[in-house]
């Protein structure tokens, strides 16, 4: 299993609902290892989704044309009535890229504090986030980075991405 990390020194807030790209030096980011997430509660069973609430969102990820740039997917947000005092218990994710390249670095980031989970090469899975103190009303966003410079060939075309959040 990939190590989960926290991504610091990067502001993830965006006013646009559309994917965007920007020039960014990935080496300027400080990465800290998080404790290994717990497995989903009763992994494979219905108890994994027993919670006081849940929300999900589906987006289309960006097309990746250039190496050395960070591409941000659209922000995935909870409904307006999601209580900010509730905490995330489980998160599951799914993302797809057509013409995927195994060198692609992919993070799933919560936008409030800029903390990220490294989901590189892990197209669909989940984690128990109890104890991580993540508000259920926090939005999430995928970040994609292809190391190097110049054009990416073949171009990687963003497909759907989603998160499903359960909270208590």
Show the helix and strand layout.
Elements: E1 5-8, E2 20-23, E3 30-33, E4 53-60, E5 64-67, E6 69-72, E7 88-98, E8 105-110, E9 115-118, E10 124-128, E11 140-145, E12 150-167
Antiparallel strand pairs: 1-3, 2-6, 4-12, 5-12, 6-11, 7-10, 7-12, 8-9, 8-11
Task: Give a description of the structure.
The strands form 3 sheets. Strands 2-6-11-8-9 form a 5-stranded antiparallel beta sheet, with no helix packed on it. It has no helices and 12 strands. The protein is an all-beta fold. A hairpin with a 4-residue loop joins strand 8 (105-110) and strand 9 (115-118). It has a single domain (5-167), classed as Jelly Rolls (Sandwich). Residues 1-21, 29-38 and 42-46 have low confidence and may be disordered.
What are its keywords?
mainly beta, 12 strands, 0% helix, 5-stranded antiparallel beta sheet, elongated, Flagellar protein FlhE, Jelly Rolls, FlhE, 168 residues, signal
Task: Describe the structure in brief.
Residues 1-19 form the signal peptide. It contains no helices and 12 strands. The protein is an all-beta fold and 168 residues long.
Give the distance, in angstroms, between the N- and C-terminal Cα atoms: 26 Å
Task: Return Rg in Å.
Answer: 16 Å
Tell me the strand order in the biggest sheet.
2-6-11-8-9
Largest beta-sheet details: 5 strands, antiparallel
SSE series:
EEEEEEEEEEEE
Number of strands: 12
Structural class: mainly beta
Name the CATH homologous superfamily: Galactose-binding domain-like
What number of structural domains do the residues give? 1
CATH architecture label? Sandwich
Mean pLDDT: 78
Helical segment count: 0
- Poorly predicted parts: 1-21, 29-38, 42-46
Q: Outline, from the CA principal axes? A: elongated
Helix content: under 10%
Q: Please write the CATH class name.
A: Mainly Beta
Pfam family, one: FlhE
InterPro entries: FlhE
Keywords: Signal
Organism: Pseudoalteromonas citrea
């Amino acid at each position: 299993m990939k190590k989960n990390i926290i991504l610091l020194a990067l502001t993830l807030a965006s006013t646009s609902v559309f994917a965007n790209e920007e020039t960014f030096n990935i080496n300027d980011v400080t990465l800290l290892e998080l404790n290994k997430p717990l497995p989903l509660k009763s992994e494979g069973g219905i108890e994994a989704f027993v919670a006081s609430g849940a929300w999900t969102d589906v987006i289309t990820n960006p097309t990746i044309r250039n190496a050395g740039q960070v591409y941000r997917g659209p922000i995935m947000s909870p409904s307006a009535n999601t209580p900010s005092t509730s905490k995330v218990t489980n998160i599951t994710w799914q993302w797809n890229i057509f013409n995927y390249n195994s060198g692609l670095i992919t993070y799933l980031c919560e936008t409030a504090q800029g903390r990220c989970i490294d989901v590189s090469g892990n197209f669909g899975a989940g984690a128990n986030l109890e104890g991580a103190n993540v508000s259920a009303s926090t939005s999430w966003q995928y970040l994609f980075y292809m190391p190097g410079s110049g054009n990416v060939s073949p171009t990687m075309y963003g497909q759907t991405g989603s998160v499903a959040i359960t909270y208590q």
